[in-house]
Amino acid sequence: MTTHPETGDDAGVYRTLLESTQAIPWRIDWASARFTYIGPQIERVLGWPQDSWKTVEDWAMRIHAEDRQKTVDFCVSQSQQGTDHEADYRALTADGDYVWIRDVVHVIRRADGSVDCLVGFMFDISERKRAEDKILQLQKELEALSYRDPLTGIANRRMFDRILDVEWGKARALGAPLSLVMVDIDYFKQYNDRYGHPQGDACLKEVARVLDRAAARTRDLCARLGGEEFALVLPATDEAAALAVAARCARRLAQAALPHAGSAVADIVTCSMGVATIVPGSQDQPAGLVEVADTRLYRAKAAGRNRIAGSAG
């Protein structure tokens, strides 16, 4: 294995420059697929002896198994086309760990255009990757928070709108029913006036917990739309099943027995609900379903509250 990339009077100068960098320089002869040079920095970074890097196979087998095939295929393809390229991958260390590497590759071609050799630098980008991963995790956490109601922890209006659109598309494609239950806490202003806003917040949290548990299937969504208004999105659910879910919500809220001395319909916290169901057609829109459920919710409130209104009443 050649220990330096140049010959002649300048060999020592080139070698000193190359070997004083943090990056790891290397050269591969294209015809033989053998390393003709790799910097001694490789041993410090990955632990493999400098003279153990003999062929492209040595490089490939020291790539993490999950990254190996796609990295090798990409680099070979780009090199065959004579295209300079970069590749990020996890390189295995001699002690069984891995280091994130960015390989920057330059293709050297002969006068006739054929590939003569590949030269490049390997950079240890582990710290950068850790920072990037942390940023991505923070972004995911922030995105998750942006879809959550900060008080109750359930989905917010933004998530409700997004999920309703998604489930609407699925229901229309499959010809399946989609149900929506709009929920409003009865006499909540009076509750706040009597017990104070901190207790009102506690009430909202408990109602959210009850509703969320009542909508128990994985795809069911419970969201707080604002104030004391909530909604349940129930995919693949006909009206009878949606009315049963609403009744379960009312029953469990009654079991929670949150005192409400300011209510005109009961001595505990109750809710009014409007239920709407549709098998979406090509001309229908989600806003139409929301409007119907809202209309039925206000019908329930006008009829005396603490009740559920569907298509029949």
UniProtKB/TrEMBL annotation:
Highest rank taxon of the organism: Bacteria
UniProt EC number: 2.7.7.65
One Gene Ontology biological process: negative regulation of bacterial-type flagellum-dependent cell motility
Broad enzyme group: transferase
Family matches, as SUPFAM superfamilies: Nucleotide cyclase, PYP-like sensor domain (PAS domain)
Every GGDEF domain range: 176-313
Gene Ontology molecular-function annotations: diguanylate cyclase activity
PAC domain boundaries: 85-137
Catalytic reactions of this protein: 2 GTP = 3',3'-c-di-GMP + 2 diphosphate
Record GO cellular component, one term: plasma membrane
Protein name per UniProt: diguanylate cyclase
Organism (species): Massilia cellulosiltytica
